[in-house]
Design a protein that fits this description.
binds magnesium ion; Creatine Amidinohydrolase; 5-stranded antiparallel beta sheet
Amino acid sequence: MIFYKTAEEIEMIREACLLNCKALEHVASVIGPGVNASKIDREAEELLRDHGAVPGFKGYRDFPATLCVSLNEQVVHGIPTNYEFKDGDIVSVDCGTLLNGFYGDAAYTFALGNVSEDVMELLNVTKTSLYKGIQAAVSGARMGDISFAIQKYCERDHKYGVVRELVGHGIGRNLHEAPEVPNYGKRGKGVKLQEGLVIAIEPMINLGRKEVRQLDDGWTIITKDKKVSAHFEHTIAVKRGEADILSSHVGIENNIRNNPNVKEVFLKEEVVV
Ligand code: MG
Ligand code: MG
């Protein structure tokens, strides 16, 4: 069952999303080679709790941390450990926040130090594909239009692997609600998009093949071919004309520009959102 949100509920979700992104902004300002993954996890948790929120992932199906920290060939759901980031790592950091009864969800992939051109291109394309999906998320369209926009851009135009096993999701009073938001699909198919639908769109795109597997920790998803994977996520509300992006990467990207240890990820083309 899909829970469509009122304008007031959407503002509550926006509040959760913006606080959630503050945690990612903090990560953007401190992350770099030599930094400990569990340290940034603790700091993110502290920031959220200091603002009266609760980490959205910690305790969710027994996930042990505030952030999912997924390195290189890890796609998503990596558990932060005492690992110290290395020059050349790419790190997907995914955060969820529960504030005043509503969840926010967003993710960004950080490129630390000397990341190769082909990997930077994967990041640029994956980020651009997120906005291609958002552009398709207007009332009257269908879920498949979002899915197709992401898949076509990443798979057909750029020959990357689009992960099938993990998808975006509705969000609101629950972290994961109906409907699913696949990153692959057919135009004109699936759930009709209506005002009040709030979804997390999150392309997970592999440099190599699309196949993934889960590690024995019961969480971490990695690519089967061990090539790197990228992940960007926004929470959005479907509107007429254009989607309302409830989360924000603006502060994250400002902090990246001021962090000499992190490379900027660029949009490949102007995407109107
Ligand atoms: Mg997320
Ligand atoms: Mg999500």
